């Protein structure tokens, strides 16, 4: 049983309301834990074997998993943390590999009575690949989801431009420019649930102006885009699968295809989706994730 320290999330009232809209009616509760000395915001709920969902490099933290939480909570005990310095978690001075590993190992030991399956997205997927190479004993399985670090990666110039514009001025128009890179069909994704999507946009922008969030994002981009050497990836001693959007413009699927061939990791590709299929194609994401985790036995 997960033991969470009771207490209300410290929040700015307006941002708290935005986050509440993102998480409205979901079968998880948000509370703070002291993890390796860092006040960490964690969503937890559901029944079944533990499944840890780790967000990518995004200012809002784990709240963006909301579209798939209801279904996953039917069959798993979900643990969804905000990484230090993002979402509602306290920052650290520098979120480098050692700081991340120490924090994440402590989180798993605190929240999981049995080894969990880990789904790690984007920049944090790269960092968790390194983590798993050193700490496979803490995991049951690993799903690396659209992570640039599993191969030679260079950020596309257009993405770099829209990312810098958003970091300098997180306006609604700059957010939309960035999101049009993230989604295969931004307009279709927005129309699936306009109210939720607006809350997601507003909350993410509200966090993007916070100085320690800006600093953390810069650190994650530097760390999460570095290639993890194949020799290190081969030390991962749990069943590992890759999950990708067919039309990912952040991290092209060709990088995943090459890694799958080199490392023997099965690759599950979601059609009609970009970098965030769990938002853009939630049912297809759930189906692909079920296949990936079933293969892990």
Helix-strand pattern: HEEEHEHEHEHHHHHHEHEHH
Number of strands: 8
Strand content: 15-25%
Report the principal-axis shape: globular
Give the low-confidence spans: 1-11
Radius of gyration: 17 Å
How do the strands line up in the largest sheet? 1-2-4-3-5-6-7-8
Count of DSSP helices? 13
Distance between the first and last residues' Cα: 23 Å
Q: What structural class is derived from the secondary structure elements? A: alpha/beta
Mean pLDDT: 93
Instruction: Tell me the major beta sheet.
Output: 8 strands, mixed
Estimate percent helicity: 40-55%
What does this structure look like?
The chain is of the alpha/beta class and 297 residues long. It contains 13 helices and 8 strands. It has an 8-stranded mixed beta sheet, sandwiched between helices. The model is unreliable at 1-11 (pLDDT under 50).
Strand-helix topology:
Blueprint: H1 13-22, E1 29-35, E2 38-45, E3 50-54, H2 69-72, E4 77-81, H3 97-111, E5 117-121, H4 122-135, E6 141-145, H5 157-168, H6 172-182, H7 186-192, H8 194-208, H9 211-224, H10 230-233, E7 239-245, H11 253-263, E8 267-270, H12 277-280, H13 282-294
Parallel strand pairs: 3-4, 3-5, 5-6, 6-7, 7-8
Antiparallel strand pairs: 1-2, 2-4
